[in-house]
Write a sequence for this structure.
């Protein structure tokens, strides 16, 4: 095995380990949720897998019909990026609907509080003219 291939494998393995460490640290600090971290851990595992077993790229590329194996990796990561974007869109839509529902509930509670205060009059702490 030529020296440059060994360097590529070492760099790929280090990159995969660094990616896993960053994702675990983000989950630990609660900056990244567990379900979102799965996509990033899968990407790191793919980097590590392709780095450790370079022949797998060639076999998969031949199976898919791609002449140049690194294009397979690029395509896989573009597809993975699209999946991550889809997951983010789903999370954003869910949070938007929850925020809208909470705003509506707050508006209803504020209206109920205002109508209750109008019925009772000013409270003991003030609220009316002195």
């Amino acid at each position: 095995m030529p020296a440059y291939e060994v360097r590529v494998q070492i760099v790929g393995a280090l990159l995969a380990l660094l990616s896993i460490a960053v994702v675990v640290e983000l989950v630990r600090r609660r900056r990244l949720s567990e379900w979102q971290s799965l996509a990033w851990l899968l990407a790191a595992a793919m980097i590590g897998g392709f780095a450790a077993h370079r022949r797998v790229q060639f076999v998969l590329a031949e199976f898919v019909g791609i002449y140049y194996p690194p294009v397979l990796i690029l395509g896989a990561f573009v597809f993975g990026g699209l999946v991550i974007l889809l997951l983010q869109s789903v999370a954003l839509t869910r949070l938007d609907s929850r925020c809208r529902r909470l705003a509506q509930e707050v508006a209803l509670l504020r209206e109920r509080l205002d109508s209750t205060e109008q019925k009772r009059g000013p409270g003991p702490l003030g609220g009316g003219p002195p």
The mean pLDDT is 88. Helices lie at 3-28, 34-52, 54-64, 69-120. The chain is about 85% helix and 0% strand. Residues 69-120 form the longest helix (52 residues).
